[in-house]
Specification:
The complex is a heterodimer of chains A (384) and B (561). Chain A has 384 residues and is α+β, with helices and mostly antiparallel strands. Chain A has 17 helices and seven strands. In chain A, a hairpin with a 2-residue loop joins strand 6 and strand 7. In chain B, the strands form four sheets. In chain B, strands 1, 2, 6, 7, 8, 9 and 17 form a seven-stranded mixed β-sheet that branches. In chain B, strands 18-16-10-19-20 form a five-stranded mixed β-sheet. The chains are: A alpha+beta (384), B alpha+beta (561). At the A-B interface, helix 1 and helix 2 of A face helix 3, helix 4, strand 12 and helix 9 of B. The structure holds flavin-adenine dinucleotide, iron/sulfur cluster (SF4) (2 copies) and FE2/S2 (inorganic) cluster (FES).
């Protein structure tokens, strides 16, 4: 017998879940605890299937591919968006944890774990999400474009439209009309396409109210995206492209607006953010102070330790990384920003196998998670 | 009644969306129905690529593509249909690129192409390892651009037939509940495959063969239903696909003795032999007791951590999440899994079925391009080319025919049938029947087929169909009720299983995916170079018939690689 044999021998787990049931027609909601026996390889989606089959067929959730590609099964586990089919239960059960499952945030709940995706899609449609190759005569065969040119939109093209990013977007929580991370990443997918001819028109549109500058840079979208799209980076690329094209110079208005948004979303003024918000990302990113600003948006795993003064070396390293990348539009900017977020904890940023889980407060779906009785947050940060 | 539309496309994967775009551009009023959002369709899971003789990587032409396909199909493909596919494929792929598909590129900026199993030239155009995903999204972009109305999360259940014409579809509105009838001058079925007939399958939960069954129930015949392709490397236990790229990188297949067993089956090609050869070799090892809990082992360890992380990142993630195995440290347990249904609704070269106004395209259809064995990369191409053709023909037909008639009895009958199902409170939940069906199909109608096992499976399916008559739906509500649609899907699957067994028993030879090593180990062109056809008789049992294969210029030869 080889090692793998051990893995495939049928072993079972006693899995317990608490699921927020909800009915949008009656407004009734209830946190229901389920306990089922399951093979040890199950994902969260498999457990929901066992519950639906054998315990309660009225449990509602979406699924299809069960291989992390269709984007159906976005939901929250302990208050953070996950793909159910990508979330292995074994480690969670073995840690004695009973996760709380609820519908994604920032979208109206229809029933149980099913949200109404129409607001999501209407924003995607607002991006005019199709290639506009202009009035040029199309080529006889294909458009010519180098792999290098196409790589600019490689990550944006990975998006499966699952909504996990939107679920956790801070800006959307305070401004439901904010276009949001998924739609804006889709926008970048076209702005960055070498075959596209309407970049300027698009950038003007994405610079409007509720557009790219309304992002609070909390990085939640990058953190929760299961496909490594890094929508926040896409938004930064759009910002950089805008500035390159001379779009968005109204600093006063920007400053005022950001002042309000910042106070609204976090309850305090994040001074460090005012700089990038009002001067544009490109100039701001040159100030190392901006890098430190990233730390303030709590809730996400720290990109690097919070005590700035003690980490001057890191700050310098960051500065150098940014400088080396050059500042010419989307490519340079983004890689710089990625580096900022990942220089110290590369494994924490973006999509990686195996998802962590947190202590689970009983989050109520459909309501902003305000008061928490989970005691002092260890990092002294605002948590959701 | 909602609509009526000129063209109503049921299913919004690659085939359905391509059909809708074509019908729209031909001037028809077209709408889509899909039980899941279009971009959730299983076309998005295709990784490898799409075949067209673009000649970007070698001196290729449609004629070579056609020959490879005819031979790959083990001479059960219709050669006129294959010729159409291969001739139109290049322009159809260019079209996708001009719409914005993010294909991988050659040095000189053209669409990149790579070699694929049983193809004489590198002709598989691809987008890294997410080709299907890229195509689904580019097609949906074009749907949004044209503002084509989509009945999202509508479950199509019954075809409306009146005056010997298909005139619409009765659906269950999953989100809001209730039966909705949508009238249409023409209906195009594009509902995909039926991999859910098997325990281990690469197919999504949505792949339950709905369109095949819907057609069957209104008297439209199915073709070559015994032809289910097994992919050799699907991940135990659930069947998630592990790409052929692993073997391309040099992975070994081992049995429980740590032996590279392919040396006894394909000593030259070894792990790079064709899909059916490897699937059979694996199954033989497992059947003869040299498997590991019903699997063999795909060993990547000798490739080294660096190469695995760099080139096979996706595979590693799938393996970690779904099997808890890190391929850097341990071999991955794999086994043959149901992958692609070559059979389906019998159509002509324009996707027309035997019923006026009813079309089919994509995996639900059997034109037949793939015959007894599909080549990797040809399925996506078929969805595009034949989706387009069905859309074009349906639009032309609809624009020359005017009326739509949905007799009131249609809705009343459907309401009545549904009520019976929903009113039942005493009986069995569907899952046990579903799981038994899938497990026994794997056991008795899998990679190898034996007469006695197929007969046994026929009896099992009959009993399961009886039990299904008393099945209970928990959810009686109207808000996002997919409990009821999952029961209806099981009903579809059971009928298809019946047809497969009947066709499998009738084909007394080994050809492509239909392997009978114990009684009929050879191909028998004299008697069986023809399609099986199944229809339902009045009592709902499948009846068998035959149909000739169209041969244009390629006479059957022995299939060796
Ligand atoms: C893992 C995997 C990898 C593959 N890789 C490749 C590859 O590399 N190259 C290749 O050529 N082929 C590949 N294939 C095969 C190919 O992807 C499929 O055959 C093809 O995509 C099927 O497309 P389709 O449009 O016919 O169906 P699907 O994409 O499955 O779409 C079916 C549609 O019908 C809808 N539907 C179904 N039933 C109903 C109903 N009752 N009511 C309403 N709507 C309904 C669904 O919602 C969906 O929109 C692969 C298949 C799999 C499973
Ligand atoms: S970084 Fe911006 S877009 Fe992303 S979640 Fe935060 S506010 Fe939303
Ligand atoms: S960006 Fe990521 S999280 Fe957001 S919709 Fe796309 S894949 Fe999902
Ligand atoms: S079921 Fe498709 S992404 Fe989870």
């Amino acid at each position: 017998m080889t090692e793998a044999a051990v893995h495939t021998e049928p072993q079972t787990l006693e899995v317990a879940l608490k699921v927020w049931r909800y009915d949008s027609r009656t407004g009734e909601r209830e946190l229901v605890r389920y306990e089922v026996e399951a093979p040890d390889w199950v994902t969260l989606l498999d457990v929901l299937d066992i519950i639906k089959d054998r315990v309660d067929g009225t449990l509602a959730y979406r699924k299809s591919c069960r291989m992390m590609i269709c984007g159906s099964c976005g939901m929250r586990m302990d208050g953070a968006a996950v793909l159910a089919c990508r979330t292995r239960m074994k480690e969670i059960v073995e840690a004695g944890h009973v996760p709380v499952i609820s519908a994604m945030g920032n979208l109206p709940i229809v029933k149980d774990l099913v949200v109404d995706m129409e607001p999501f899609w209407s924003k995607v449609r607002a991006m005019k999400p199709w290639l506009q190759s202009g009035y040029e005569e199309p080529p006889e065969h294909e458009w010519r474009a180098s792999q290098e040119q196409m790589n600019v939109i490689h990550k944006e093209a990975l998006c499966i439209m699952c909504g996990c990013c939107v679920s956790e977007c801070n800006s959307m929580e305070s401004d439901p009309e904010f276009l949001g991370p998924a739609a804006l990443a889709k926008g970048m997918r076209f702005v960055g396409d070498p075959r596209e001819r309407n970049q300027v028109e698009r950038l003007n549109a994405y610079n409007e109210e509720h557009g790219i500058w309304d992002c609070t840079r909390c990085y939640f979208c990058n953190e929760r995206c299961p496909k490594g799209v890094d929508p926040r980076d896409a938004i930064a690329k759009l910002g950089a492209e805008s500035i390159k094209h001379g779009i968005d110079h109204d600093m006063g208005a920007k400053h005022a607006k950001w002042f309000v948004t910042s106070a609204k979303t976090t309850g305090w003024l994040r001074e460090t953010e005012l700089v990038p918000k009002t001067q544009g990302v490109v100039s701001a990113i040159k100030q190392t102070k901006f890098a430190m600003g990233l730390l303030r948006h709590g809730k996400v795993p720290l990109p690097f330790p919070p005590h700035v003064a003690e980490e001057v070396d890191e700050a310098r390293a960051l500065y150098n990384v940014v400088k080396q990348q050059g500042r010419d539009g989307a490519l340079g900017h983004v890689q710089g920003e990625r580096a900022l977020a990942r220089i110290d904890h590369p494994d924490d940023a973006g999509a990686h196998g195996g998802q962590g889980y947190r202590d689970s407060p009983d989050i109520t779906p459909g309501e902003p998670p305000v008061q928490r009785d989970i005691g002092e947050d260890p990092h002294g940060q605002q948590t959701r | 009644m909602e609509g009526p539309h000129d063209v109503l496309v049921v299913g919004a994967g690659c085939a359905g969306m391509r059909a809708a775009i074509e019908a729209h551009d031909a001037g028809a009023d077209v709408a889509l129905i899909s039980k899941i959002h279009p971009v959730r369709s299983h076309s998005g899971a295709a990784e490898g690529g799409i075949n067209a003789a673009l000649g970007n990587a070698s001196d290729d032409d449609p004629e070579k593509h056609a020959f490879d396909t005819v031979k790959g199909a083990d001479y059960l493909g219709d050669q006129d249909a294959i010729q159409v596919l291969c001739d139109e494929a290049p322009e159809d792929v260019y079209q996708l690129e001009r719409w914005g598909a993010v294909f991988s590129r050659t040095e000189d900026g053209r669409i990149a192409q790579r070699p694929f199993g049983a193809a004489g030239e590198p002709r598989t155009a691809y987008a890294a390892d997410i080709t299907g995903h890229v195509l689904v999204h580019v097609l949906y972009e074009q749907i949004m651009r044209r503002d084509i109305p989509t009945y999202e999360e509508y479950f199509a259940w019954k075809l409306v037939v009146d005056d010997e014409r298909c005139q619409g579809v009765v659906c269950w509105d999953i989100l809001n509940g209730g039966l909705k009838t949508i009238g249409a001058k023409t209906v195009i079925l594009a509902t995909g495959g039926a991999g859910r007939l098997y325990t281990g399958t690469t197919n999504a939960y949505a792949c339950t063969g709905d369109g095949m069954s819907m057609a069957l129930r209104v008297g439209v015949p199915l073709k070559d239903m015994e032809m289910m392709q097994f992919h050799p490397t699907t991940l135990a236990p659930t069947g998630v696909l592990i790409t052929e790229g692993c073997r391309g990188e040099g992975a070994y297949l081992l049995n429980s003795e740590g032996d590279r067993f392919l040396k006894r089956y394909a000593p030259n090609a070894m792990e790079l032999a064709s899909r059916d050869v490897i699937s059979r070799a694996e199954q033989t090892e497992i059947d003869e007791g040299r498997g590991v809990n019903g699997n063999v082992l795909l060993d990547l360890r000798h490739l080294g951590a660096e190469r695995i992380i760099e080139r096979l990142h996706g595979t590693r993630e799938l393996s970690l999440v779904f099997a808890g195995v890190d391929p850097i440290q341990e071999p991955i347990p794999v086994r043959p899994g149901a992958h692609y249904h070559m059979g389906g609704v019998d159509t002509d070269l324009w996707g027309q079925t035997s019923l006026d106004g009813l079309y089919a395209a994509g995996e639900v259809a059997c034109v037949s391009v793939h015959g007894a064995n599909r080549l990797g990369g040809n399925a996506l191409m078929e969805t595009i080319t034949y989706g387009k053709r069905a859309g074009r023909h349906a639009a032309d037909w609809a624009l020359t025919h005017t009326t739509v008639e949905v007799p009131p009895s249609v809705e009343a009958d459907a309401e009545h049938e549904l009520k019976q199902l929903l009113d039942r409170t005493d009986g069995e939940r569907p899952w046990q029947i579903r799981d038994e069906l899938a497990a026994t199909m794997h056991q008795n109608f899998g990679v190898f087929r034996r007469e006695d096992q197929m007969q046994e499976q026929g009896r099992i399916v009959e009993r399961l169909r009886e039990r299904f008559e008393r099945v209970v739906v928990d959810d009686k509500g109207t808000l996002f009720n997919n409990d009821v649609t999952q029961a209806l899907e099981l009903g579809f699957l059971l009928e298809l299983a019946d047809c497969m067994v009947v066709s499998g028993l009738a084909r007394k030879e080994s050809r492509g995916a239909h392997a009978r090593p114990y009684d009929y180990p050879n191909r028998d062109d004299e008697n069986y170079m023809r399609h099986t056809i199944t229809r339902l008789d009045a009592s709902g049992r499948p009846q068998l018939d035959w149909k000739p294969v169209t041969v244009t210029k390629w006479q059957p030869m022995e299939r060796t690689y």
